[in-house]
Amino acid sequence: PQQQQQQQQRGSSSSVHLWTRNTEDEVEEEALIAEQLSRSAAFFGEKGQAAVRGAFVIVVGLGAVGSAAASLLVRAGIRRVRLVDGALYMPNACHALAVAGDAGMPKVEVCRARFRAIMPCCEV
Fold it and tell me: What ranges does the record list as Polar residues composition bias (predicted)?
């Protein structure tokens, strides 16, 4: 809306509308992320937290240990994570990350959904 108003104020007669993400939403998301990562930032410092956010991590194996480790990495602020595990969750292997309804689902898909819910800006 703000961009459209600026085009109208300049006298643009174009009927093409450019849809961009609302700047207020981006600022709000950044504030939420900063709040979520405040403890990590206090530990790592500003430069360290920037390095963490810019890191790319590959996690091979999403069992109880691998999925928990990947979850902690996402919660620490790692934005780019590649998950590798070709297995499905079985009813006897639904640990802290998975729930009963996840049985039969690919581990990668279950973890991706959980991590995006925790930190929407992460790329899994």
Answer: 10-21
Pairing of strands 80-84, 56-60: parallel
- Calculate the alpha carbon distances from 122 to 1, 55, 73 in Å: 27, 11, 11
Q: Which two tokens stand for residue 17?
A: 């509308």
Task: State CA 99 to chain mean position distance.
Answer: 20
- Could you say which of 3.40.50.360, 3.40.50.2300, 3.40.190.10, 3.40.50.720 is the CATH number of the domain covering 20-118? 3.40.50.720
Q: What are phi and psi of 57, to 5 degrees?
A: -125, 140
Put simply, whether the predicted model's pTM sits higher than 0.85 gets the answer: no
Helical axes 64-76 vs 107-118, angle rounded to 10°: 30
